[in-house]
């Protein structure tokens, strides 16, 4: 069995990477890593931040090797959109809604695999109705509260990853750990601190802090919270991958049933 797990940022992946002997892989669109975990071959794809970049990387990974992956997990960090969710809490979404319409879809919502959702809840995640995949960085608490009227958490990649997984016939699920609460403004504009690969650039962060020194305490707080959330996610993923491997037969049957209904 081979499972694809995606992250936007290397920092989101770092705690899980430290737990296993990942080796570098090859992909034209993004960095990849491979390891054997819980009896499964796990491929990790670092997509970079943003829907278009995530979609392109996932498309290259999944369509480049038809049938290579049995399941896909879109993971990483997210901002809470409701006060119910605390920093470090792992959320599994029944569906993902895209801020940006697609010309080839009448609807802007995709469903996670029911079987993968069920196992995620068994492994300790909190089941939520919907993630909101934004096309821009949602930095202000006011906008988070507004989005919270229809979604539980905001991120920037899951819809496009699930879209490519569905197109490739790969059951997929969106799972995220909360890095910032609904009432927190992000200290910096994330769009200004990313490099051309969609990864955080330390020189750009330092440049932003030099121009906006008052943002430093908030940036340090977000860093601590993001690290805690990534570590929480790493622990969850270890249990989750093992659970998927242990239930391979039932998952295969569920995937076949879903395929016959399409």
Could you characterize what this model shows?
The chain has a single domain, classed as Nucleoside phosphorylase domain (Rossmann fold, 3-Layer(aba) Sandwich), CATH 3.40.50.1580. The protein is α/β, with parallel strands linked by helices. The chain contains eight helices and eleven strands. α1 crosses α7 (216-246) and α2 packs parallel to α5 (158-167). A hairpin with a 2-residue loop joins β3 (31-37) and β4 (40-46).
Strand composition percent: 15-25%
CATH architecture: 3-Layer(aba) Sandwich
What is the name of the CATH topology?
Answer: Rossmann fold
Unreliably modeled segments: 258-262
Mean pLDDT: 89
What number of structural domains do the residues give?
1
Span of the ends, CA to CA: 23 Å
Overall number of strands: 11
How are the strands of the largest sheet arranged? Answer: 6-10-9-7-11
Helix content: 25-40%
**Quick one: CATH class?**
Alpha Beta
Structural class from helices and strands? Answer: alpha/beta
As a whole number of angstroms, the C-alpha radius of gyration is: 17 Å
CATH superfamily: Nucleoside phosphorylase domain
